[in-house]
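Narrative of accomplishments. A recurring question from our advisory board has been how the design workflow behaves on a single, concrete structure rather than in aggregate. To address it, we present the structure tokens for one chain from the evaluation set, followed by the sequence designed for it. No filtering or post-editing was applied between the two.
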């Protein structure tokens, strides 16, 4: 649901008078039914393994504040002796809280990159533990929305592979960073560049026209975007004529006037003069269009996620068997349960995890 009214009402006429009936109960029942939709019943119920107490401290993304509040309220119904202290100023602060040992968990609207891991790695030679807690939104700004590839509506192109996207937006490289590892196997030469529409199979007047790629600017030194990781193998070499726009709306207005342009951003910035392309991981397909259903099912290739990270070392900084603190384990187990994923829907910001994905994340807590 894109909007959730505070109340619904209908009007009925009885005895010549207008009676306004507020359907608060009906609205609540509808919301509860929506939360139980899809595959959520296949998720396990949260069953506390032990009673826990104490304070759980979180740093990180302010955009996750609403879903975090829903998780906290739901969790305290089962674990009333746990309280929370939140310092949510932005994803960039989350790992600092773990590094300085003033946070038990970092809420992140993106995956961490090598730069984020240095502090924890330096003190313990252990990497932060990553728990995927929800699927990113379909079309909500600042809610880790899926990335959509747009072209002008006059463009006859209908679909692309991720390799073709790399050819359009990327350039020659010797490798790419993935987690803490340099991957030379993602190297490629200029032969992989795609610079004209004819290289994508378009004919006639389109064939010799140059492709005009548009995208957001690079994040920061040491940073890396989801697009780089998913499409370019973690490389930081871009097409030489990439046109960068910090303002996504301005970028899409420019694309709306450029028949030979292509851009990636969120569906929330779509205009009537552009169209979205279906994408595939491999040339043989399947080619998946970006819809709320394909993003929720995580079949759309550029679906994003949100995460909670924790540091797997002792408070003293000494290396330890990477096990999660009992109260944090209980909280994360709740988040990955049916109740926790219903809270995701209730918050209205993100999409729940499919059962198979949730199961993989729960195994990290064992």
């Amino acid at each position: 649901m894109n909007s959730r009214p505070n109340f619904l009402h209908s009007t009925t006429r009885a005895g010549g008078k207008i009676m306004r009936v507020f359907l608060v109960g009906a609205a609540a029942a509808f919301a509860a039914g929506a939360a139980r939709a899809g595959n959520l019943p296949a998720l396990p119920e949260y069953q506390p393994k032990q009673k826990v107490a104490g304070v759980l401290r979180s740093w990180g993304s302010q955009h996750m504040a609403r879903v975090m509040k829903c998780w906290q309220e739901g969790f305290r119904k089962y674990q009333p002796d746990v309280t929370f202290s939140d310092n949510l100023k932005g994803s960039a602060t989350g790992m600092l809280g773990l590094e300085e040992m003033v946070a038990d968990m970092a809420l992140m609207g993106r995956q961490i990159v090598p730069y984020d891991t240095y502090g924890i790695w330096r003190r313990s030679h252990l990497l932060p533990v990553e728990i995927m807690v929800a699927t990113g939104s379909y079309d909500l700004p600042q809610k880790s929305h899926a990335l959509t590839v747009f072209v002008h509506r006059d463009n006859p192109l209908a679909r692309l592979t991720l390799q073709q996207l790399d050819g359009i937006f990327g350039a020659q490289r010797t490798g790419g960073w993935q987690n803490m590892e340099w991957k030379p196997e993602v190297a490629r030469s200029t032969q992989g560049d795609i610079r004209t529409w004819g290289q994508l199979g378009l004919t006639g007047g389109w064939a010799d026209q140059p492709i005009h790629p548009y995208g957001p600017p690079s994040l920061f030194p040491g940073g890396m975007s989801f697009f780089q990781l998913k499409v370019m193998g973690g490389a930081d070499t871009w097409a030489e004529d990439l046109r960068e726009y910090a303002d996504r709306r301005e970028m899409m207005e420019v694309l709306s006037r450029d028949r030979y342009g292509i851009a990636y951003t969120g569906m929330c910035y779509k205009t009537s003069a552009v169209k979205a392309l279906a994408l595939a991981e491999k040339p043989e397909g399947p080619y998946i269009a970006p819809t709320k259903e394909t993003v929720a099912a995580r079949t759309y290739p550029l679906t994003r996620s949100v995460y909670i990270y924790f540091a797997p070392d002792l408070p003293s900084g000494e290396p330890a068997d990477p096990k999660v603190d009992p109260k944090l384990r209980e909280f994360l187990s709740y988040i990955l349960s049916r109740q926790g994923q219903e809270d995701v829907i209730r918050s209205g910001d993100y999409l729940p995890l499919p059962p198979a994905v949730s199961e993989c994340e729960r195994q990290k807590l064992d």
